[in-house]
Specification:
alpha/beta, three-stranded antiparallel beta sheet, binds pyridoxal-5'-phosphate, seven-stranded mixed beta sheet, Aspartate Aminotransferase, domain 2
C-alpha cells in the first residue's frame, strides 16, 4: 500500500524557472533592476492594473500603502477579525487603531452589513481581505467608503487570479496588495506587489519603497546623467524586491493561466466530492466571483454551529485533524481570528465572542491540501479519507 505524506501546500517550479535565477546573478544586476521591471510589466498585463510596484512582501505592500495614504497616529482602520495577523499589524506599526469587523461565515470575508456601525470621525481606511482567493464584496464596501470619504486598501495577498464582476481584485481600492510567499500560487520566496490606478500614489509608493529616492538606480543608470545621485524627498524604507526574486516571479507569470486552471480543477474535484457532506461547508463562489483558490478552506459543522457548540466542535475538529495527520494528510485551521491572539486581545481588551463568526471560523475551519502538481492519486486519497469520516 502506498504511504502518503501530503502537505497542505507545496511549491512547484519548472527547471526553466529555477535556472532563470542565474540570469541576474550572471548579469550582476541583483536588486530592483530589469527583472523586477519585467515582473511588474507582466503583472500589469495580467491584472490590467495601471501600475504595479514590486516590494518585499504583502505586509510591506500594506504598510507602504497606508503610509502613502497618510494614515498615521490616531487614525482608525477597519480590518476583518478573521485574517492573517499582518493585515492588522501594519495599522499598529503606523500607530493607528485597529477596529475589527466580523466576517460572513459563508465567505470568510468581511460582513459588509457590519461596517457602517464601526465608522467614527477617526476612521480613515477600510482594509477588505480577499481571503484565500475569494473576492470580498467590493461594491458595498466602495459605496460605504465613498459616502464616508474613506480610503480602501485591498489585502489581496491570496488574490492572484481572483476576479470580482469581471475585474481582477486589487484594482478597486486605492491600492491592492499581493503576496508571493511560498503558500501563494506564484512565489518569489518572500515578495509582494502593489497595484494602483492612481499616478500620484504610484510615484509616492515607488519613492517610499526605495529609501525615498525620486529616481530608482535603474532609471539613473539608463538616464542621461548616471553619475549624479537622486534626491530623496521622503524618508522612505528599503522595501525593494531583488532581481533574483523578480525573475522567478516573471518566469512564473508566463504560465499564470495554467497555474490557476490547475488549482481550479483541484478545487472543483473537491467541490464535487464533498457536495453531499452535510457536515462540511466548502468555499462558495457566486457567479460574479472568480475564486483564485490560494487554498481550500472549509467550515467543519458536524452539528449546529453557534457560540454554545463551538468548543465542542473545536475538540472534534482537532482530533479529526490529528487522525488525518497520522495517515499522512496535512490540514490546517484556515487562518486566525486576530482578535483572539494575545497582542490584540490584551491591547484592546477583546473577548472571542466580540466577533462571533470570526471566533467560529478560528475554531471550526479546516483547509485541505491544494497545490500545483498534486497528483490525482494524492487527491483521491484525501477525498476518500474525508468522505469516509463520520462524526
Ligand atoms: C490575508 C493575508 N494578508 C497578508 C499576508 C502577508 O503576506 P506576506 O507574507 O507576503 O507579508 C498574508 C500571508 O499569508 C495573508 O494571507
Amino acid at each position: 500500500m502506498t504511504e502518503y505524506n501530503i502537505p497542505i501546500a507545496k511549491t512547484q517550479l519548472t527547471s526553466d524557472e529555477i535556472s532563470s535565477v542565474l540570469e541576474p546573478l550572471k548579469s550582476g544586476w541583483l536588486v530592483q533592476g530589469p527583472k523586477v521591471g519585467e515582473f511588474e510589466e507582466k503583472w500589469c498585463q495580467f491584472t490590467n492594473a495601471k501600475h504595479s510596484i514590486a516590494v518585499t512582501s504583502c505586509t510591506s505592500a500594506l504598510h507602504l500603502s497606508l503610509e502613502a495614504l497618510d494614515f498615521g497616529e490616531g487614525d482608525e482602520a477597519i480590518v476583518p477579525a478573521f485574517t492573517w495577523i499582518s493585515t492588522a499589524n501594519v495599522v499598529e506599526h503606523l500607530r493607528g487603531k485597529v477596529v475589527f469587523c466580523d466576517i460572513d461565515l459563508n465567505t470568510f470575508n468581511l460582513d459588509v452589513s457590519k461596517i457602517e456601525e464601526l465608522i467614527t470621525p477617526s476612521t480613515k481606511v477600510i482594509i477588505p481581505v480577499h481571503l484565500f482567493g475569494l473576492p470580498a464584496n467590493m461594491e458595498p464596501i466602495l459605496s460605504i467608503a465613498k459616502a464616508h470619504n474613506l480610503k480602501v486598501v485591498e489585502d489581496a495577498a491570496c488574490g492572484f487570479g481572483s476576479q470580482y464582476r469581471g475585474r481582477h481584485v486589487g484594482l478597486f481600492g486605492d491600492t491592492g496588495c499581493f503576496s508571493f510567499h511560498p503558500r501563494k500560487s506564484i512565489t518569489t520566496g518572500e515578495g509582494g506587489m502593489i497595484t494602483t490606478e492612481n499616478d500620484e500614489l504610484a510615484k509616492k509608493l515607488r519613492c517610499l519603497r526605495d529609501h525615498g529616492a525620486e529616481l530608482s538606480d535603474l532609471q539613473r543608470h539608463v538616464g542621461p546623467r548616471p553619475y549624479l545621485l537622486a534626491d530623496h524627498p521622503l524618508a522612505g524604507y528599503n522595501q525593494r524586491m531583488t532581481d533574483i526574486q523578480g525573475v522567478l516571479g516573471s518566469t512564473q507569470m508566463d504560465r499564470a493561466g495554467k497555474i490557476l486552471e490547475e488549482r481550479r480543477q483541484l478545487a472543483s474535484n473537491y467541490n464535487d466530492a464533498f457536495v453531499t457532506l452535510e457536515w462540511l461547508r466548502t468555499p462558495t463562489p457566486t457567479p460574479d466571483l472568480i475564486h483564485g483558490y490560494q487554498s481550500y478552506p472549509c467550515l467543519f459543522a458536524p452539528q449546529k454551529i453557534d457560540l454554545k457548540s463551538v468548543a465542542d466542535i473545536n475538540l472534534k475538529r482537532n482530533s479529526w485533524m490529528e487522525k488525518l495527520q497520522s495517515i499522512g494528510i496535512s490540514t490546517r485551521p484556515a487562518t486566525h481570528a486576530v482578535h483572539m491572539l494575545s497582542y490584540y486581545k490584551n491591547k484592546y481588551g477583546l473577548k472571542p465572542s466580540d466577533y462571533p463568526n470570526s471566533y467560529i471560523a478560528n475554531d471550526c475551519s479546516v483547509s485541505f491540501p491544494l497545490y500545483n502538481g498534486m497528483t490525482s492519486s494524492e487527491q483521491n486519497f484525501v477525498i476518500d479519507a474525508i468522505s469516509g469520516a463520520t462524526f
